[in-house]
């Protein structure tokens, strides 16, 4: 009996709403001509016919065909642009198709058919369409703007009893008044904003009534994601009434921003006579939401955060937007340090870590957002300066509980006295254990230790200055000796000019894969040096086939006075550089042990120091011992000969019977600008 009375009351109220919105509209009596259908196929294809042979094109028409087997609208429907009413309910129509030609259509009833989708172009050109019924179909998806496009003016929309799982906001809001939009009895769990629509603050949407009842909603819609940038404007923007009866709303923290805007605004948007009630949590189940708002019970609308959302496993985290806080309760959980992280939120934290075994109040990123903190009954031995600085940013003095705390205090904790004094925190239960004075009240710490700390600081300063001086006097030379050891060896090495007999004067090392370098050696360098009678060993010319590279290099270098390196970018960049690395290793070792030997380097590619990674080669370049190729005075070959020094005074040089490598192709591709100079002998 009570349910019947309530339903009757709802019907009466809805009638009053429609009257208030001006929705009790009756069309002026117009004589309509009837169309008849002829089935042309077993799949439900039809053809429309007129009953009057004297049919006039300007005559208004209607098409009514219920309880049929139509699969599609009539194929010739566009021949009747003056159609104003179509009722094809209880057929088998699967697709509406293109009906933009029916520019005068006012009423379309497709109830109880087999429609599955409505596209945004389906009704977009039907500017006079006022009544649309697509209820009791199988519609799973509505395109954005398919039912509320700017060109549409649908006053009565019935899309109930379908299979919708979501609804886009663009199919709800209309600029200007409408009567009803019914989306009840679907499977909707969320409202979406696929196109990121932003509602225009200068436009009023509605008034009108939107039915969302008997859908499995659980979370209250976030209107900020639905285009309402400022919730305080919600009542101005949306002059809607919403019917959410039969939904499963959880009365949690996500509702609070909407409910807080004002009770009067909520009255306009949410008709409290429908008595929408909470279904969870247990303490609010069955209570009308509007009544909770009026009674100021929003502090009961909370969300519990779990470990996956950042809540420490030992603690309980509850978000309470009505009080702008997130409560983190870790009381008596045996903690030995502050939680490393807390749930991410825009609200302030209320942190309770009392009755634990925390020894260090260390720095945490979230401390600057802590508004209330209870750290009483812990075993603090040290408090980090940065932690206090972060707490000072937000935390009012009266919101910090430090009862029954004993700190170990020394000269590093003198700030505690000033901090307690400035923030007017009661210090009668905050004590310090000191080395020479035992337990004292923390606020008197500075008075007791100030002079001792000043003497200690002076002593420490003297020690630090002494250590710094010692480091400068002894450490800097050691660093320079280690870092520039190769450079120093090269600079201070003394060459023994006494004559010593070697089989070769020069061992010439280069990148044999560099065409430009090889051509220059063949056409310029070798002829020039040979004119002075130097005995030159060139691996690519003189190394016999089958010789082991390392053994050959070691044996020849033992018999050679000067190691001549053609330094190029490719010389340093060679993949693995097996041969040149071997050559350099033995040459450098012999250079250090035998003062008769020399290393002469030609910087063929003008490489700067920063591009040379090999330490010994880098040292040659850094101290200026590498001869720049093609220096500006044009005497680069003379400089090379001068660096090598006198030869063995033999007038011949050794020749290998092995044919010279083939550089015919290389000569054709590389033009060398340096010609051999005439002998200076």
Q: Please, could you describe this protein's structure?
A:
The longest helix is centred in the last third of the chain and has 39 residues, at 445-483. 26% of the residues lie in helices and 18% in strands. 29% of the residues are buried. It contains 17 helices and 30 strands. The protein is α/β, with parallel strands linked by helices. Among the domains are: 303-448, Leucine-rich repeat, LRR (right-handed beta-alpha superhelix) (Alpha-Beta Horseshoe), CATH 3.80.10; 490-669, Rossmann fold (3-Layer(aba) Sandwich), CATH 3.40.50.10140. The radius of gyration is 47 Å and the shape is flat. The chain crosses the membrane at residues 458-484.
Question: What is this structure, in a nutshell?
Answer:
The protein is α/β, with parallel strands linked by helices and 681 residues long.
Can you summarize the main beta sheet? 10 strands, mixed
Q: What is the CATH class designation of the domain at 490-669?
A: Alpha Beta
Say which CATH homologous superfamily of the domain at 490-669 is assigned.
Toll/interleukin-1 receptor homology (TIR) domain
Low-confidence parts lasting 5 or more residues at pLDDT below 50? 1-14, 650-681
